[in-house]
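Lab notes, practical 5.
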Amino acid sequence: MTVATPSRLARPLLAAAFFAFSTALAAAAQSFPAEAPLPEAPQAQPAPRDASQSKKQDDDQVTVLGSPRAILHDQAAIWTSPLHLHDRDLAVLVPLGLTTAVLMTTDHQVMSSSKLQNPSMNSEAVDASNGLVGGFIAAPVIIWGLGHIHHDDHATETGILGGEAMVDSIIVEQVLKIASMRERPTVDNARGKFFQTSAGIDSSFPSSHSMVAWSAAAAIASEYNGPLTKLTAYGLATGVSLTRVLGREHFPSDVLVGSALGWFIGRYVFHKHQHTYAD
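Output from the prediction step:
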């Protein structure tokens, strides 16, 4: 039996990612008009906006040039979010924390399993995860480009917010990696020790691939919230997370936290900045 080489496996997966995204977005777009209908004429002449109101609305617009400013504001909100938690947030955070703790106690056993110590499978899984996450990185650019060409505000907004979500997730991920300094599964018999200076910026915690994939998926699936788009985006993001474990690049707890943080960031960016369509 012929075994697929890593490059042969990654190329079709990457192509599948592009095809799936295009199919999902095309299907979702059919539920919206090509151009937004004009609003009905007002019954009375509205009061003129003052300069401060006009500037505020202009600053809130989703644009490429406005992205750096939006990302700075996002980072301030993300890092201060623990100060603004509500009781309803605990319904999600407590189960997530408990599940992460349980996974950390089993990380060593899982990654030491002989079933995962297969160099050929590990290599193919790593290439697959790289191909899939490459599709997620390219998707917002493609969506924005198509929206720009066709003057589709919904698509351009989706592309910009998808990009902002990924940048936000990368910044958070890099800070957490430096703070956690966790060894990779391939080091020290997969003991996964934290605060090891030898790990440096190559820390295993959290999974950067998972954060990027889930942040982009959450932003896109929130903008185009049809079932096909959600199934495609979150299905591919799940594929990224699973292949990071199968490739022995990350522990299950790294992937869980990375996926959850990416999803939260993507959803936050959408709800904070979207203007064209409501979720």
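Observations recorded by the TA: Residues 31 and 226 are 9 Å apart (CA to CA). The first helix runs from residue 6 to 29.
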